[in-house]
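Reopening this ticket.

The earlier resolution said the output was attached, but the attachment link was broken on my side. Pasting everything inline this time so it's all in one place.
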Amino acid sequence: MVPRTLLWIVWGLMLWGALSLRNLHWPHSHGICGPWGCGPAVPALLAVHTAWTVLLLPPAVFLRRRHGAPGTQSICRGWLAAGLGGIVAVGLYEAAFWLPTVGAWGRDYFLHRWAFAVVTLTDVPLLPGTAIASVLILLPRRMAALTADLAPRNANQMAGSPQHGRCVEER
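Inline output:
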């Protein structure tokens, strides 16, 4: 068992490392620009989204350990629904306020603007929270499938059988 103090130190170092990503040299450090608008520098976006992910990991791990896979599913479904609802809300906001301000030429870029608005929304952990909830929902299913693949298929493969651990080839 790893002492909790060490875990918090590692978590703090991970958070510091995530925020330090803003110092990366990126070829287009001015950000990504297009008819949909100009955004912040890519390293800054990467740093903030990674920091949100690192910040949300301890509560996600606690939730998983405290409630197990079945208990985590309903909470994560709510978390995922909130994240997807937030993404839809950003799209509705952009449709209501950005779309009327652009001419006919801008209508072709609505999906770009929507994605741009979601990615640059760093005040709330919309993308990291949705990603973590998705992983926590899909992980038990993937682990169950992996466990089922590793489970013995018949009585001859079970522990204690004379053929356990040997490869038997029929000719």
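Reporter confirms the inline version is readable. The chain has a mean pLDDT of 81. The two ends are 49 Å apart (CA to CA).
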